[in-house]
Amino acid sequence: MTAHTDDGTPAVQSPAPLGDWQGLSTLSVWANTAAGGVPTMVTAVIGTVALIAAGQGAWALAPVPAGLALTALMTWIELVRLRATRYRVTSERMEMRSGILATAHRSIPRDRVRSVDVAAPIHARLFGLCAVTVGTGEAVGSGSDQLQLQFVTAEQGERLRRELLYRRPAASGGAAGATPEDRAGGAAEAGEEVEVELARLDPRWFAYAPATTATAGIGIGAIATLLGANAQSEGRMWLWLSERAGLPDSAEIASYVMARLLLVVPTFLAGLLLSGVVVLLAVAVETWWNYRLTRSADGTVRLRRGLLTSVSLSVEGRRLNGVVLHEPFVLRTAGGADVRAVATGLSAGDDRRTSAKSRLSPAMPRARALELSADLTRTRNSPLEVSLAAHPRAALRRRFTRAGIVTVLGAVAAAGAAWLHTLANEAFWEAVYRIEERLSPVPVAARSVAAAPLWVWAVAAVLLGAAALWYAVGSYRGLGHGLHPRYLVVRKGMASRDTVALERSAVIGWRITRSPLQRRAGLAHVSATTAAGEGVYTAADVGLGQGLAWAHEAVPGLLSPFLVRVGPSEEEPRPT
Amino acid sequence: MSTDTLRLRPPRNRVNGKAVLWWTANALLVVLPLTAALVVPALFWEEGRPWLLLAAAAIGLPGLAVTVVMPQWRYRVHRWEITDDAVYTSSGWLWQEWRVAPMSRIQTVDTKRGPVQRLFGLASVTVTTASAAGPIEIAGLDSALADATVERLTETTQATAGDAT
């Protein structure tokens, strides 16, 4: 079971005791030089070739020396940075000194360490190095709650990971004078033996990777990049290619395409989808290869993943305050979901990056995701499966109103477009075709628009209205809130539905907000604030009384002094 | 079906009455320069005058309405209360917000005095918790009262164990 730890043997290797100041690995200079220098030199060589091809012989001498000089400069800066950076781990604190002109000294009490992230990007991995990021969960300023060592040897990284998060179950302060590495060694031994596996990659899960709304979009991105390059060269790229390969030129393609529009357009769309699928599969394999999620004896949850960039993220068990079931629309339709952590010390600047860093699983079948969430929360039935209360009808009406506004705006835009369409004359279309022919080797978009009858605009407007209505109903159905004996649960979202289970003991306050329209409709956003994850988890558009009752029951005592009962409540005694 | 019987009661204390003046001053500091930036050129540039004056009216009149209505409205909404266990505040005018934070989860307590606030002898008390929801602010307290409040909160929170997360 310890096949993954080729370096997992107890700490016989200890060149310097951890309590001493030590530097980063000297190899990190080489790793960073390789990372920066290789692309620089490749660019320089390409530049030289291009200049020679263009007949600028004298200038062709410049790129390579310039690239070398730049690489040398980067290496020198790296060396200086390396010399200036020192860190140490004592029995109480982790400290780091860094900086050349402005020196910084950062110090984190060890009991404030919430997560340790060991990542080895490909260029570091080649040299046996890794970057260690220590998260504290003290969100002061932007992202400054983290301390990063770039790079240390894989061995040191592993040791830091084990040591920084290990908490002796009790009486840890007893042997203050004991050498830290002794304790770490013993802990690691014990930890590895009773590590429980929560999840392991099933390659079939990769089938869910392309199930995103962006699949076609990413395909468009890939193709648009090519088209963009073609347009940059004023169409010469395609001309060159078609001459070499004997392919037809743009004009021929255009006439061919226009003759067989019904065949070419679906083929083109299928091509978009296919290239999107390929890109997304590749990203998923790179991200989730070797995926393993384990829990060690002291409760620390450890995530390992990555093909080229290997990542190991450890979160202290006590700081894992909840789980999120993340179901984007297409994935949900395909019956998949992924699991994210609600944990302190994983914040990374903004919500999106925090959420990306919190991913604990790839997209997997929903049932498996729920099972995993039950394991993570140490409950028999996942708190994510508790039955959720629906929100009042007024919440649905709000969504209908929004859908109505979108429909009206869409209708106005469609009417405007139709009006412009009737105004456009031959000369205008000719100009548009010419522009498109320059940009695209398959110039069909403008011709299709020009050929479309006017009622298409009406159809577009109606379709938009129908989609808006459907979205409104979907987002209302997505709303819900509920309680589990240890967790509170909120759900929302249509395009991306998140069901969040947050430990009730992790709630550190409440926030209730109401807009003028919400006050009229008797609704409110009732949010639990917490130190973990995104910091606020909201039951959106809940009935005010309903939401307050829920909050009151979730964390007894906190809200109760500020609540009053009003109205005809006598006939309905609540069981709280 | 009527669970709709629970309501939040307003926190016990109003903010200082001078806060109305402070909010008015704040609103004027935004509205006046914006309007002036349109009116002043109108005095010198005859052809553009109607348009500039129209734009000035479009900004100035709603601005004036906000300046008159907003401070009174805020004064009715903004309230605060500190019990032995929690800090409870309400704020806002069109969009309103109620916040509750337990003493045991408070990390830092500060006072803040902006230049305009100082003009009216006011201060804000800012209570930070570990949440990303942002600090709880009691804006527009009498300066001395703000200091006393901070002192009281600091004492209470220091007496409470835990690392506030």
TrEMBL record, chain A:
The chain crosses the membrane at residues 29-52, 58-79, 205-229, 261-285, 400-420, 454-473. Keywords: Membrane, Transmembrane, Transmembrane helix. It comes from Nocardiopsis algeriensis. Residues 83-163, 484-539 form the YdbS-like PH domain. InterPro entries: UCP026631 (IPR014529), YdbS-like_PH (IPR005182). This is Putative membrane protein.
From TrEMBL, chain B:
InterPro entries: YdbS-like_PH. The chain crosses the membrane at residues 20-45, 51-70. Residues 75-149 form the YdbS-like PH domain. The keyword Lipoprotein does not apply. Keywords: Membrane, Transmembrane, Transmembrane helix. This is YdbS-like PH domain-containing protein. It comes from Nocardiopsis algeriensis.
